[in-house]
Amino acid sequence: MSRNIEFEQRNSEFIKKIGENNELKTITKEWFSLSSKFEYSYHFTWMGRPIIQFPQDIVAMQEIIWKVKPDVIVETGIAHGGSLIFYASMLELIGNGEVLGVDIDIREHNRIEIEKHPMYKRIHMLEGSSTDQKLVKEIYDFCKGKRTIVVLDSNHTHDHVLEELRLYSDLVTKGSYLVVMDTVVEDMPEDFFPNRPWGKGDNPKTAVKEFLQKNDRFVIDAKVHSKLLITVAPDGYLKCVK
Question: Which residues make Cβ contacts (< 8 Å) with residue 194, sequence separation at least 6?
C-alpha cells in the first residue's frame, strides 16, 4: 500500500468517527449558536469583498471546485459578492470557467465593487427571482453543454429552496455538486430567527429532505460535513451520482 493511499484511508476512518461522535456534535451546536450571536460569518472577506460564509465551508467549496473543475458555477444569492469573487479566483487558478450569480436585488454599491474587481472578468450577474422561468431559461442557455456546479444561497424558506432544487438540479451532471447553504437553520432553536420568514421546520434542510425523496440522482456527501463539523450546510452538500 502506498503512503498516499494509507493516508487517505486513515483520514476516511477518522472522518467517519467524527461524524458519529455525539459529544463533538453537541459542542459544535453550542458553539454555532453562541458564535452566531456575534454574526460570526460576517467577519470574513475574500480578496477584499465580504463573503458571509464560514471559513470551513470556503475550504469545502475549494476542494469541490478543484476536484470537479467546472466550466460554470451558478450561485443564487449575491449579497456583497464575496462568494462570486471566491469562485472566480478558483476558476482563474484552474485556468477555465465562468461564474453566474443571480439575485432578486443586486444593490448598486455592491454591483460597482464587484464590477471593478480583477476577478470580474469571469463573472456574470443576473438580476431577478431565481425561480422566474424566463431567467431560469437564460441560465440553462448559458450552461448548455457545460460542466456545472450549483450553489443555492438566496431565500431560505422551504418552498423557495425546494423550487430552486427542482429548477436547477438538471444543470448538474454526474460527479458534480448541488450545494444548499444554510441547512443549519433546522438545527437551531425554535426562536433563533424571529425576524426571518424561515425557521425550524421551514428551511433549506427540510427542502433537501423532500427533494431527495423524489430524486435519486443526488446523495448527501456526508464526508464533507462530518470533517468540517462547523458548517452552515449540514446535509447540504449533494453529489450527483447519476
Answer: none
